[in-house]
Amino acid sequence: MTALLRRLTVLALIVLVILGTWFVLGMLPAGRDAARSPQTPKPAAWMPTATATKPPPTPRPTATPWPTAIPPTATPSPSPTPAPPTPTTAPSPSPTPVPTLSPELVTVARANGFDPAGDFIVINQNTQLMHVVKRGIEIRTVPVSTGDPDQGYETPAWSGKVGRYWGTFLGLGGVWADNGWWLFKAPGGNILIHGLPYLLKDGVKEYEDAEALGLYPASHGCIRLHVQDAEWFTRLQPEGMPIVILPYTGGSSREG
């Protein structure tokens, strides 16, 4: 009995010791933490102690204002197209109207079997004019001089075609002529269209009867043209063109 009490007493002491130890340890947490972390050394007496500076307060973010609404840009109306400047230069002249074929030439052409809308030549001895028609249009009216009846020469009325080119030739009376185109052979000799007759004096051409062109007959039967008109007629290359020579009914070649 005594032994049992002793054992119980020892057991109670052991429990008390354990509880007391737990109590002491729970009351000293700082000592436990201090035992675990190293001690911070104190600064030496001669070293200045740094004063902790309080950091500046962090500025509060300023609220960004909402952008002001931009009014919509009005669509620009198109600029009116400027009118083109008025030209300062004078307008081109109107084309010269093409002369129509006279009724007299149409009548002559049909009477001789020519096409009025084609190419042909009419020599009117009464007016001393030669009418040149190309494609139904009179392209040139040329003054002429035909056979002089007062001197016993005449140019017979005739219808046919322009013949070959004679060029320069020697005619009656010992005179020369250029740009000769043969027409036909008459009782008095060959009838041609050619330039004014001339005599050669020291190599210079002296033309005859230029004043008669377009006014009165003065030739030996040929149809005379001015020098420039004869050159133009040659450039025309009239060989084969229909031609009619109307009769002369004007009386004396020197009248009116």
Give me some keywords for this one:
single chain, about 260 residues, alpha+beta, L,D-transpeptidase catalytic domain-like, 5-stranded mixed sheet, 4-stranded mixed sheet, 4 helices, 11 strands, about 25% strand
If you had to describe this structure to a student in words, what would you say it looks like?
This protein is α+β, with helices and mostly antiparallel strands. The chain has a domain at 103-245: L,D-transpeptidase catalytic domain-like. It contains four helices and eleven strands, in the order αααββββββββββαβ. The protein has helices at 2-27, 29-36, 103-111, 227-236; strands at residues 120-124, 129-134, 137-143, 158-161, 165-170, 176-186, 189-195, 198-201, 204-207, 223-225, 242-245. The strands form three sheets. The protein has a five-stranded mixed beta sheet, with helices on one face. The chain is rod-shaped and about 210 Å long. The relative contact order is 0.13.
The parts where pLDDT drops under 50 for at least 5 residues are 28-38, 40-53, 61-92
Principal-axis shape: rod-shaped
Helical content class: 10-25%
Mean of residue pLDDT?
A: 79
Termini gap: 203 Å
The main sheet orders its strands as: 3-2-1-11-4
Order of helices and strands: HHHEEEEEEEEEEHE
What CATH architecture of the domain at 103-245 do you see? Beta Barrel
CATH top level of the domain at 103-245 is: Mainly Beta
